[in-house]
Every structure is written in structure tokens, then in C-alpha cells.
Structures
1.
Amino acid sequence: MPSLSDVHHPHHHLHLEFESVRELPESHAWPTLHDHPCVSEPVPVIDLADPKAAEFMARACVSWGAFQVTGHGVAPRLLEAIDSEMRRLFALPIQQKLKAARPPDGISGYGLVPISSFFAKLMWSEGFTIAGSPLDHARKLWPHDPDQFCDVIERYDQVMKALAGRLISLMLLSLGLRHEELDWAGQTGKPLPDLAGVLRLNSYPACPDPDRAMGMAAHADSSLLTILYQSSTSGLQLLRAEDQNGPTRWVTVPPLPGALVVIVGDLFHILSNGRFRSVVHRVVVNRSRQRVSVAYFSGPPAGVTVSPIGKLVGPGRAPAYRAVTWAEYLGLKRKLFDKALATIEMTEES
Ligand SMILES: C=C1C[C@]23C[C@@]1(O)CC[C@H]2[C@@]12CCC[C@@](C)(C(=O)O1)[C@H]2[C@@H]3C(=O)O
Ligand SMILES: O=C(O)CCC(=O)C(=O)O
Ligand SMILES: [Fe+2]
């Protein structure tokens, strides 16, 4: 009999005390894990110090929708610090973590990923989303010492915000745009506006039956781009469409010490009029090691709309997507999940 934590609180079967589960419960057994073969294939690795970085990024964003980045200047000590804060957080008793539970309609807090509601089975993971100050959460989790967690989160957030700005600029340059040509924010001639960001800490506990469990179901992110630190344990897979190299397949992104994974989100897909592809990805789990990851979702500031860049659409041609704000798009994603992008597509007539 699996030991479910709902014995102690009202959240029915949703939150497992994973470490004490010896056998995969039916609630967490997925029938669809082997829809496509899992292969290894060289995911592009780009050194930001390389003068050709922008050119390589464009190629990777068109063909993969993701790449790994090195030479980014993020201190290894900061990566170690957030890794260790994540482990400290997820090691807390479930009752403690639930004190900082994400409210049903909220963004921030502890719990399942929002897309869980679209699936009949539960995922083998837990997570913590932070939008804005981490202090209220940290006070609930560590009433006597909230500062250590907050300091690391705030430093990480700042560093990621700066890196996201650099990457987005380079990616726009790689599309042949100068900063002055940016009309996506409706502010032609102005520099990149202050970007918004959301952090999500993920934990995938060691799993007694990894072949039947799903760490995180296949999805695309709604951000402009996501910067992911996956530490040292593999599990992240990118969906690669059928091409001359093989059929539709899952490609594992191998952890590379010190590297960060950059994932193209739906808003960059929209911005680039589909040239850069938002990539579907998922996470598989393993039998022996807990895996932690931290995703930084970077998007336009509140209230700013994103729409296809005029220069990329070309004169006399219609843009493929209508303008949306991040908040509006997140709402669509929450309601429609993988159908969200299609609903803002523009047909020739419209
Ligand atoms: C800003 C956000 C993006 C996200 C929803 C969220 O509020 C925080 C979690 C993010 C995440 C991570 C896993 C997949 C995803 C689709 C989900 O359900 O939660 C993404 C959301 C997104 O990119 O739309
Ligand atoms: O844990 C990972 O490697 C990926 C997590 C992810 O896709 C997400 O948080 O959106
Ligand atoms: Fe993701």
C-alpha cells in the first residue's frame, strides 16, 4: 500500500511523500511514455564568447528550438547555491511545504505544475513557482530563517534576468534585426524594455518504476525563452520532428557541467512569426537519483504585447499570429494547454 500523505491533509492523493513510496501507485502510472523512440543526438552547444554565437543561435532556434549555452558568465557557486537551496526546500516535510501551497488561481507557491489538470495521471514531480518576492513563501517554509533562501533566489533571479536580456538581444540580432527595429513592444526605436521573469524550482524524486512514470508531461513553455539549469542528472528530452536523420523522436539533453539550457517559448515563436520554433519537451525520471532543475521563464513586461516583427513578416504579407500580452497568453495556456498557440493564429482572410 503506497503511503499517501492525504492521510494527514485534505489534498486527495495529489501530494505524495515520494521518498516513502515503494511501488508506483496506479495514479502515477502513465500508459503513453513510449510514444516515440528515445535517442541521443548532439544538441547544439554555443559558447557566448564566440563571435559567431548569434549565427549559431539562429541555426539552433530554427532547427531545434533549444540549445545549451556555455561562456555565460554565471558563477558556478551561484548554480551550486541554488541547487542546494532546492534540495533543502524539497526535503521539508510535505505538511510544511503545503503551508506555501500555490492557490488554485495563483502563480506562486508549492505544488503540481498547472498543466497537471489536463492529464488523467499524476506526474512524478513537485515544484515551487516564484513570481516576485520570495519572502512570504520563505517565511512559511522556514519561519526562523527565511533569509538564506531569499538571498539565493534573489541573486539567481537578477543574474537570469540579465542573461535573458543578453540572449534575447542576440537572438533578435541573429534574425537580422537591429535594436532600433524592434516593433514587437509597440515601441519602435526604443531599447529592449525591462523583461519580466518567473522562476520555477522542480524536483523529480528517485522513482521505483521509472519506465511507467512521467516527471513532467510533454509541453511547450509560453515564455519568450526559458533558461534551465538541470544540474547533473539527465531527464530532459526535446521532441524532434521526423527528418532525414530519423522518425519523430525524443532527444535527451545531456547535462553539461556549468552549461545552461535555453528553450524557445511560444512568445518567441510568435515574435519571429514561426521562424524560431517553440520546442515541445518533457522530463523522464530515474530509479536511483533525485533530479532537481530550475527554470527561469523570461517574458515581456506586464501589459506589453508581442506580435510578429514586421520586417520578418515581409511587405504585403500577413503576420501568422495576432498580438498578445504574456498574461493573456498564460491565461490561454492554462485554459487550452497545447491548443493555445493555434487560437491566436491568423488565417489569410482575417
Ligand atoms: C509563468 C509561468 C509559465 C508556466 C506557468 C507559470 O505560471 C509558472 C510555471 C510554468 C509552467 C512550467 C511547466 C509547464 C507549464 C506549461 C506549466 O504548466 O507550468 C509552464 C507554464 C507556461 O510556460 O505556460
Ligand atoms: O526539469 C526540466 O528539465 C524541465 C522543466 C520544464 O520543462 C519546465 O519547468 O517548464
Ligand atoms: Fe518547460
2.
Amino acid sequence: MTATDVKLKTYLNYINGEWSASETEETGTSYNPANKDEIVGFYQLSSSNDFDQAATSARAAQKEWQKLSGNVKGDYFLKAASILEERIDDVATTMTKEMGKTFPEAKGETARGVAILRYYAGEGMRSNGDVIPSSDSGALMFTSRAPVGVVGIVTPWNFPVAIPLWKMAPALIYGNTVVIKPASETAITCAKVIECLHDAGIPSGVVNMVTGKGSVIGQDIVEHPEINGISFTGSNAVGKQLAHTAVSRGIKYQLEMGGKNPVIVANDANLDLAVEATISGGLKSTGQKCTATSRVIVQNDVYDKFKEKLLKKVEEITVGDGLEEGTWMGPLVSEKQLNTVLDYIEIGKEEGAKLLFGGNKPSSSNAAIGHYVEPTVFEDVSPNMRIAREEIFGPVLALMKVDTLEEALNMANDSEYGLSASIFTTKISNMLSFMEDMDAGMVRINAESAGVELQAPFGGMKQSSSHSREQGRAAMEFYTNTKTVFVKG
Ligand SMILES: NC(=O)C1=CN([C@@H]2O[C@H](COP(=O)(O)OP(=O)(O)OC[C@H]3O[C@@H](n4cnc5c(N)ncnc54)[C@H](O)[C@@H]3O)[C@@H](O)[C@H]2O)C=CC1
Ligand SMILES: O=C(O)CCC(=O)C(=O)O
């Protein structure tokens, strides 16, 4: 489709169980990053009044939703999961068209969304408290969980199905109602996910979606008096700004933000495995994951061999439209992201790092129509360089050489972030020191830094998160408040 195509679809807000246009009568345009002239569709540029309606309807629906039993709530998720599964090709195609990741990756993420819904459907049937012996032998004391109320959800563009679902599903199963504001870049993919919940018959007002500018709707989400908690994934700057307002209002907040994730390759590593995982962890989704590998810390004895094997594989990477068969790496999400990544590559060169591979937009004529960049590898990167310290969010690997494992661990920990970290080693003593001494929320041994499992806690240390955890049963901590109940007959 092109800008002149009259059949393009305009996507609406979802408020109180109905699809509605914004009162502003304005729309934003979602473009395909693989072909910047291609329009994927239009989404609402909503106003604060639109948001107010969504928050009010979420509030009105909350008590009744809370009172449904866990299995009844879970049934809606099971239905929505089956609908999403039936639509997997359409949703994944939309995702590839909106944000650029390859179709197999987009399909994998959509399948993950199906699994998230099924996992949290069961959560409504699991225990949610403890019986605690009272010092009064005639009393019963136990804990139970109360929903937070109405939860505001602000999501990024890099996982447009999985992140909205891993926030909405636990929020809902624990009895909250939600208003979500997805990233504009992937607003249409999110609308298609919400459509599955709508078609599953979820009661009106329980789920609401309002699209529009972060500076308007994102800010409303944290300021609106009906919002009792906010869950955010995105940049550190925006996350911290939202947290300030949340603290001043005394509401709950949860932030998942950046990473500068290291992989350590020890002298005794299986180098083929380490190379494969560095490429997958660093370059899949064109490096646009908060868990992406960006610092590759390699011990001296294997440095040259590892570098040679890595470059051989990186050279084989095919860059192109994620919908085309044979493409391994798609474009970056937007021109803004492309410029950020190209700027960091220039900064790396100016700082004295040695560019081993890539660093440019690909030279093919097709590449000119999209936000493409070559997979890029630097070496001689020192810990104080900006490319070793700041989140680039693109396909850029920084090789760093060390003598000892102790030095490697110190270097890996020398970051304001602490989201995910990997080591490649066959020695149990190396594994144990890494597990013990690595300051990261996700510590992975002989596995890539990216790729989280939906049933396990996910989140970072230091500046990577607000120190809470998402996913698995850990999600209960944020989406509920504990009540301690004391009963005396
Ligand atoms: N941790 C992660 O998974 C992600 C990290 N990022 C990082 O952020 C950088 C910039 O990407 P952006 O898309 O610009 O991230 P962003 O933090 O601006 O956007 C994330 C979400 O916040 C919303 N938002 C933006 N401004 C807001 C405001 N003032 N108040 C409330 N909500 C607001 C956006 O509309 C979007 O829904 C990336 O280069 C990357 O380093 C971006 C996306 C995901
Ligand atoms: O690595 C993953 O699967 C999840 C990454 C993630 O949550 C993110 O990039 O925001």
C-alpha cells in the first residue's frame, strides 16, 4: 500500500468495550521502516478527554471484574489466546511491517503472546496467600491479595505483542482493570491484540486502549486521579519522569528500562556456541532489545580465534525487508533510531575504537528506501568510551579484551545498568563466580543475553529497572497489595 491508497485502515481507540475515534479527529500514521513510503495504517492522536473516558470506564468496571472468580477471568484469556493463535500470521505480518523485525521473529513473539495468555489464565487458580500461625491460639491469620485498582500501562515498540500482554494479563487476572497506551510506532499491532480480547468477549471497560503522543497520553496515565499504578517499559529518561510523578501522587509504579548487557567469553569457552549466541543476542531484532548483547568481553588466549569466527558469521548476515524470505536482519524501527545508531557509530570511531565490520547504511539500492544499517563490530573498545557505556539499541557489538576472568567480571559490572549478562565457559568454578558476582537481574550461562521465559521473573538491577520484577508469579508483587487478615471467632 502507498500513501495514495484509499483502502488504508484507520484504527480506533478501545474504550468501554467500543471502538471509537478520538474527539480530536486527528490521526497519526504508521509507516513501514523497510519502505518508508509505505503506510501501514492510521491510529488516533487522542486527547486528555479521550484518556479521561478510558480511565473512568476502567474504574467503573473494576469492582465487578475483581469479583469474578479466577477461572472465569482465565476463560476470557483462553478464548483470546485461541483467537490470537488463529490470527498469528496477520498479527506477525503487521508487527514486521510496523517495527521491522523479521517475520519469523514476529511470529515467534506472537506465539509467545499466546503462551502468556494461557499461562496467566491458569494463574487465577493458584494460591495467593499464606496462613501464618498467630500468637493467639484462638485466631486465624493469613494473607490475601487485593488488586491495585486501575493500572496504566505504557509500552514500547520493540515487543509490540509480548510486552503489552505480559503487563495486561497479570494485571487483569489479579483483578485490576487497565488502560494501555502503546508506542505510536506499533499502535496497530497493539490494536490487533486488543481486538482478540474484545472478540473473546472480555467485559466492557476491563481493557481500554488509547493511542497518541507519549507527552500527552503517557503523561495523563500517571497524572489521572483514577489511575492507581503504572507499569512502563522504555527509555530511562521517560521512565524516571513518570516515576517522579507516581511518587508525588503516592501510586505504585514499575519501570523496565535500558541495558548495556555484557557477554564474557572465557579461555575455556565453546567458541562456536559463544559466537552463535553473541550474534543472536546482539543482532536479532536489529539489536533493539533491552536484553541485547552489546559488550563482548573476551579473554586473551581465545580473542583472535573468537574474533575471526565472529566476523565470518557477521559477514554472512543478510539485511533486508523482514517479510522477505532469506532476510536475517530487518531495518531499525524509525529514522530517529537509525540516526541514533549512526551517531553512536561515529562516536565510536571518534573515540578511537577500531571499526572491524559494518558501520554504514548498506549500499544496495533497496536499502535506501528503509531504515537499514549494517551489522557493526568494533574492537579496541575501552570501558570509558560512550559506546561501552550508553545503550545504543542497534546492531553494534563492542569487543573488549581482558587477561583474567576477574578482570572480565569487573569490566562487565562497570556499568550503570544491570539487566542481563552471559558467560561462555566450560569450567564450573567460572560459572559459580559469575552467578555470585555478576550484578544483573538475568544471569545466563552458556546462553545468549536476550530471550526471556514468560514463567520466570524478569527485571534488572541498578538503573535497568525500578527493582521490581515482571512476568511469572513475580508479577503478583506489583499488580496486587498484600492484606494481612486476622480472624477471631
Ligand atoms: N527497555 C526497552 O525495552 C526499550 C528501551 N528504549 C530505549 O529508549 C530509546 C528511545 O526510544 P523511544 O521509543 O523514544 O522510547 P520512549 O521511552 O520515548 O517510549 C516508550 C513509551 O513511552 C511513551 N512516552 C514517550 N514520552 C513520554 C512521556 N513524556 N510521558 C509518558 N510516556 C511517554 C512512548 O509513547 C512509548 O509508548 C531507545 O533508543 C532505547 O535506548 C526504547 C524502547 C524500549
Ligand atoms: O529478551 C527478551 O525476550 C525480552 C526483551 C525485552 O523485554 C525488551 O527488549 O524490552
